[in-house]
UniProtKB/TrEMBL annotation:
The keyword DNA-binding applies. It comes from Chitinophaga oryzae. InterPro entries: Homeodomain-like_sf, HTH_AraC, PchR_regulatory_protein, Tscrpt_reg_AraC-type_HTH. This is Helix-turn-helix transcriptional regulator. Keywords: DNA-binding, Transcription, Transcription regulation. It comes from the Bacteria.
Length: 333
């Protein structure tokens, strides 16, 4: 796709360019991994190209707090954007509309012109996942998909910058499972193409559905102030830090200063998930990462607070469709 960056050093650097992106190349799936150690930080891009669809996973360890960015050759594309980790603000000079960067948030964009600046928290790795559809492909896929996407499509047809949600929408567990599936696709050749195409469409559906649900939930919001929302984010961070032995709902209410009703409803509004399911999903994703790093199953189960290996295995298989033992052997192979 190609994006130019400039940090405190003042030199422009072009990253992420994959020549002939939408050139009709007959190859089914093309992939490219680039790693850079640059004045403003260390960057890794993994790019995957399908017919009319481009995917990129980025892992950026930024040392400079401020970066300038521009995309002089930006193509006519629609972007599904997912923040996996990191904090900051990105501003497009053309739209003059800031995008708040926060972990586990997602949005959808049509940006025919981009030149802007970004402010990142240098203490937190910035990881993201994007799917880019050609404009024609996207408009074909979302025909008659309801009023929420119709306004979005009207802006695309008019060639105007648009983002689906002003401040983004929470990423849910189903989306993360879909993203992980694409990043760890087990197939090759034509089956890989079919799998990746289906997952891209699935993620588009999940994103549109989450946006509709978010609008519905926030019609009568339980959270009446920015302070209430800050308290919900505090609860999420506290849960992650204490996921091995999570506190009870009443304990969380006391810690956050919110009553239990506002806590439960507000958490679902912000993160599109219940408190208990959010913790369970987080623990299983942590378990998966540890197994990929060849950590023994017994150690994973004990470290994450599962009552027994049998119970851990049952929950892991329910989530990922394979037992931890088979998953570990596949990862080693």
């Amino acid at each position: 796709m190609g994006m130019n960056f400039r940090g405190a050093s003042g030199a422009w650097l072009e990253l992420g360019d994959l020549p002939g992106l939408f050139d009709g190349n007959p190859l089914l799936v093309r992939e490219k991994i680039e790693k850079f150690s640059l004045p403003f930080g260390d960057v890794e891009f993994r790019q995957i190209v399908l017919p009319d669809i481009y995917l990129v996973y980025g892992d950026m360890r930024i040392r400079d707090r401020y970066l300038e960015m521009e995309a002089p050759g930006f193509r006519d594309i629609v972007e599904l954007h997912f923040i996996l980790s990191g904090k900051g603000v990105i501003t497009n000079h053309y739209s003059r509309k800031p995008l708040v960067v926060a972990p586990n948030w997602q949005n959808m964009f049509y940006i025919p012109l981009f030149s802007g600046k970004a402010e990142y928290d240098p203490n937190v790795p910035f990881r993201f996942f994007e799917i880019h559809f050609t404009k024609e492909k996207f408009l074909t896929l979302v025909q008659d998909c309801g009023p929420s996407l119709q306004s979005f499509c009207d802006h695309i047809i008019a060639g105007k910058n648009i983002q689906l949600a002003d401040m983004g929408v929470p990423t849910n567990a189903a989306m993360m499972q879909c993203i992980n599936g694409m990043l760890n696709c087990p197939y090759q050749g034509g089956l890989k193409l079919l799998y990746m195409q289906s997952k891209c469409v699935e993620l588009l559906v999940l994103q549109a559905e989450a946006y509709d649900q978010y609008l519905k939930n926030n019609t009568k919001s339980a959270l009446k102030s920015d302070y209430d929302r800050e308290r919900i984010h505090f609860v999420r961070d506290y849960l992650i830090a204490n996921a091995v032995a999570p506190p009870s709902l009443s304990e969380l209410a006391k810690l956050s200063g919110l009553n239990e009703f506002k806590l439960k409803k507000g958490f679902r509004e912000v993160f599109n998930d219940s408190i208990i399911n959010y913790v369970n999903e987080y623990k299983l994703q942590q378990a998966r990462e540890q197994l990929l790093s060849n950590v023994p199953i017994k150690h994973v189960a004990e470290e994450l607070g599962y009552s027994s290996i049998q119970y851990f295995s049952k929950m892991f298989k329910k989530k990922f469709g394979v037992s931890p033992g088979l998953f570990s052997r596949d990862a080693q192979d």
